[in-house]
């Protein structure tokens, strides 16, 4: 039998923008968003509300209609959340892109999310322009996000044009069913059966997520949270946590354009940062850096890490750098669950590698075996399935994936194999059914790379892509391709690597090398037996380790 939720929280029945500006229990002129590189650049509640109302008017003047998708292609900036809220307030749907995307990926993103309008940094314009032009998006729908004073290329309009069209109120929604079916974001998720899919995050998902995470431990936190965010603003880890939550809560956040270790550590000490949201590569970078002797993390009162599992030793090492007694816990979350869904409640602590003591309030869970049979019980491994207010209703324009991922009882099948320990009652991830590769906190879907390689049909007969552990204690992986050459051809390792680097983002490169085989191991039904490839790769690494 499923474990039904024990905690039930009342949830908002209003749109995300109204919700974001619905708390006036703090000074509306107190800066909330801070540019970590330029402290003269800040945004308060009052300024944010005015900016959003101007952007609502601007987006409408630019031709945005209800349900139109807009994309931001930019590194982090304090104005990024304002554009997000302004676009959503005008009735649009946000779909950010990774600044590392190449033309091939931009075009796929435009098609799957049905992007109609771009806000893009001038330095990233060439790639976006080529992709957008190929997909029929006119130049008038591409605005230059020159927030750092850059020149606007001839023939384009600055995003500031959107701020010059007066002010208008945003679209307000109070009907519960409409809130559940109206999207604020279409976020790229893993493409385990092909290219990445597009998850539909609704107003209800977003407001429910903030409400539950903000309420869980509110009565136990006796300090004013001060946050720093180096996490990319196109990612579910920041939607809505960085785009909306700071203005709703009144908690200050310092935005990093990109992660840089010394800037990050010095800011924690200088600004007395209290809360850290981390991914394992950041943790590893910190604990292995001599800079921890130069800068203090003793202001940090709470740390949570997600996106990939982290070994318990690394967890303990970072915890020792923080304030005495500060809990450092791991969380489990997905794009499809609006970020974290399994977690620890403050002040709970853990050093066993668990991803949580419980699931979010209002959320039901069950474990199923390979046949989909309910095997929910302590100490039993099974695929985690969840349903609740933060679980998206489906993938955009992808009925096949929806039917495969949601069952008749409304549970989303996550693909993560987990169990709940019968003694300590904690949850652990032991495997992942979906064969995603984790690279520095990003997810790489093997079928996407395999598809690119198989486009080289004159020289590549077959291929398979797997992840290789970089080193013990790290969950980050190197990407390796196994390739079968076409008879009579002699494609080289460097040529195979170039096929990927020319079309895909840098974190998808074949850092684990290329291995040429006579045949890819497959089951009688044609499924690639990647387990065999991983076992052979492990033997190879074991031999090298002994040399």
UniProtKB/TrEMBL annotation:
Chain ranges of the AMP-dependent synthetase/ligase domain: 27-396
Give this protein's Gene Ontology molecular function annotations.
CoA-ligase activity
Q: Which GO terms describe its biological process?
A: secondary metabolic process
Q: Which SUPFAM superfamilies match?
A: Acetyl-CoA synthetase-like
Question: What residue stretches are annotated with the AMP-binding enzyme C-terminal domain?
Answer: 448-527
Superkingdom of origin organism? Eukaryota
**What InterPro entries does the record tag this protein with?**
AMP-bd_C (IPR025110), AMP-bd_C_sf (IPR045851), AMP-dep_synth/lig_dom (IPR000873), ANL_N_sf (IPR042099)
Gene3D superfamilies named among the record's database cross-references: 3.30.300.30, N-terminal domain of ligase-like
**Record's PANTHER family?**
ENZYME, PUTATIVE (AFU_ORTHOLOGUE AFUA_5G14270)-RELATED (PTHR24096:SF265), LONG-CHAIN-FATTY-ACID--COA LIGASE (PTHR24096)
Q: What is this protein called?
A: Acetyl-CoA synthetase-like protein
Starting at the broadest rank, the lineage of the source organism is:
Eukaryota, Fungi, Dikarya, Ascomycota, Pezizomycotina
């Amino acid at each position: 039998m499923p474990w039904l939720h024990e905690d039930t929280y009342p949830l908002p029945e209003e749109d995300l923008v109204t919700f974001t500006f619905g708390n006036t229990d703090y000074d509306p002129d107190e800066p909330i968003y801070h540019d970590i590189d330029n402290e003269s650049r800040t945004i308060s509640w009052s300024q944010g509300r005015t900016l959003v109302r101007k952007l609502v008017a601007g987006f409408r003047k630019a031709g945005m209609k209800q349900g139109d998708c807009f994309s931001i292609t930019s590194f982090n900036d304090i104005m990024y959340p304002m554009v997000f809220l302004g676009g959503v307030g005008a009735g649009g749907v946000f779909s950010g892109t990774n600044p590392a995307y190449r033309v091939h990926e931009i075009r796929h993103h435009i098609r799957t999310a049905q992007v109609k309008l771009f806000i893009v940094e001038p330095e990233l314009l060439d790639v976006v322009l080529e992709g957008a032009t190929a997909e029929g998006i006119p130049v008038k729908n591409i605005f230059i996000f020159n927030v750092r004073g850059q020149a606007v290329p001839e023939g384009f309009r600055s995003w500031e044009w959107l701020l010059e069209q007066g002010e208008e109120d945003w679209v307000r929604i109070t009907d519960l069913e409409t809130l559940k079916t109206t999207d604020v974001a279409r976020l790229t998720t893993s493409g385990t059966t092909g290219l990445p899919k597009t998850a539909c995050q609704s107003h209800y998902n977003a407001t429910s997520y903030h409400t539950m995470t903000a309420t869980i431990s509110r009565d136990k936190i006796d300090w004013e949270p001060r946050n720093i965010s180096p996490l990319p603003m196109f990612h579910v880890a920041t939607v809505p946590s960085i785009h909306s939550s700071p203005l709703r809560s009144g908690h200050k956040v310092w935005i990093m354009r990109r992660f840089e270790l010394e800037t990050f550590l010095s800011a924690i000490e200088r600004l007395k940062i209290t809360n850290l949201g981390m991914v394992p590569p950041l943790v590893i970078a910190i604990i292995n850096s001599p800079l921890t002797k130069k800068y203090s993390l003793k202001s940090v009162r709470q740390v949570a890490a997600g996106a990939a599992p982290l070994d318990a030793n690394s967890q303990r090492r970072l915890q020792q750098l923080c304030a005495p007694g500060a809990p450092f816990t791991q969380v489990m979350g997905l794009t499809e669950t609006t970020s974290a869904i399994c977690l620890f409640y403050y002040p709970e602590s853990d050093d066993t590698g668990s991803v949580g003591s419980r699931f979010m309030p209002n959320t039901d869970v069950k474990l199923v075996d390979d046949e989909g049979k309910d095997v929910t019980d302590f100490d039993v491994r099974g695929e985690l399935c969840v349903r609740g207010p933060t679980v998206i209703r489906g993938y955009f324009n992808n009925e096949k994936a929806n039917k495969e991922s949601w069952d008749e009882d409304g549970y989303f099948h996550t693909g993560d194999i987990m169990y709940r320990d019968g003694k300590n009652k904690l949850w652990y991830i032991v495997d992942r059914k979906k064969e995603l590769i984790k690279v520095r906190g990003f997810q790489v879907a093997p079928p996407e790379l395999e598809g690119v390689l198989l486009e080289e049909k004159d020289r590549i007969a077959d291929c398979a892509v797997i992840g290789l552990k970089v080193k013990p204690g790290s969950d980050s992986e190197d990407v390796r391709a196994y390739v079968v050459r076409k008879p009579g051809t002699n494609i080289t390792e460097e040529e195979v690597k170039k096929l990927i680097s020319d079309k895909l983002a840098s974190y998808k490169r074949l850092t684990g090398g290329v291995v040429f085989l006579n045949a890819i191991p497959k089951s009688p039904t044609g499924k690639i037996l990647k387990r065999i490839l991983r076992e052979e790769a492990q033997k190879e690494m074991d031999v090298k380790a002994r040399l």
